[in-house]
From TrEMBL:
Organism name: Skermanella aerolata
Protein name: Alkaline phosphatase
Keyword Transcription on entry: no
Residue ranges of domain VTT in the record: 30-160
Main location: membrane
Gene Ontology CC annotations of this record: plasma membrane
Topological type in the membrane: Multi-pass membrane protein
Compartment(s) where it occurs, according to its Swiss-Prot or TrEMBL record: Cell membrane
Transmembrane in keyword set: yes
UniProt keyword terms in alphabetical order: Cell membrane, Membrane, Transmembrane, Transmembrane helix
Length: 206
């Protein structure tokens, strides 16, 4: 995969960066932690401009977030609540939990999307609750763009500064991504073990 990423950026230029960042959002195993530092290295060599690199990374990332956003809109709150009613234990949420989360997300959706776009392993997933909550497309694009410009800019700048050692960026980011994934998995397992059907509904009624 690494050689394919290098080849795509080298031969495709800005278009290659857009394609890779689109795929990175649709298929998370393709790491932006390698794509953008490599693009920054290309800018340091004079093959591309930093502004163009960041713009291409941002465009590709936002395009890749849209399928997940629309998937969330397709699922919708009511359908998700019905799924939780049937499979609450494995989802570890009740319909009442979803209602509470929806209220919170509606209140903080802009901040949640912006910050979510900056967190490895969450960057793609944050698009789904935005769609479920029916966050307006304009707001979603605005806050996604702000967060993505920051993320892409930091990675590209790191690659620009490190030049031929740009792969070190991924070496630093991989442990962070792994920690986030482990925390998510452990949180899920904890909720699965401690989940009690109807508990959340009872609390809500109180």
């Amino acid at each position: 995969m690494f050689q394919w990423i290098v080849s795509t950026v080298s031969q495709g230029g800005y278009g290659g960066i857009v394609l890779l960042m689109f795929l990175e959002n649709v298929f998370p195993p393709i790491p932006s932690e390698l794509i953008m530092p490599l693009a920054g290295f290309a800018a340091a060599r004079g093959d591309l401009s930093m502004a163009g690199v960041i713009a291409a990374g941002t465009i590709g990332s936002i395009l890749g977030a849209l399928p997940w956003y629309y998937a969330g809109r397709w699922v919708g709150s009511e359908r998700l609540k019905r799924l939780a009613d049937r499979h609450g234990r494995w989802m570890t949420v009740s319909p009442a939990d979803i209602g509470t989360a929806e209220t919170w997300f509606n209140r903080h959706c802009g901040t949640a999307v912006l910050i979510g776009r900056l967190i490895p392993a969450i960057r793609t997933l944050i698009s789904v609750p935005a769609g479920i909550a029916r966050m307006s497309l304009g707001r979603f694009l605005l806050f996604s763009a702000i967060g993505t410009v920051v993320w892409s800019g930091l990675l590209a700048t790191a690659g620009y500064a490190l030049e031929s050692q740009y792969t070190r960026v991924a070496d630093y980011m991989d442990p962070i991504s792994m920690i986030v994934i482990v925390v998510i998995v452990l949180g899920y397992l904890y909720r699965l073990i401690t989940y009690r059907a109807g508990a959340s509904d009872t609390k809500s009624a109180d």
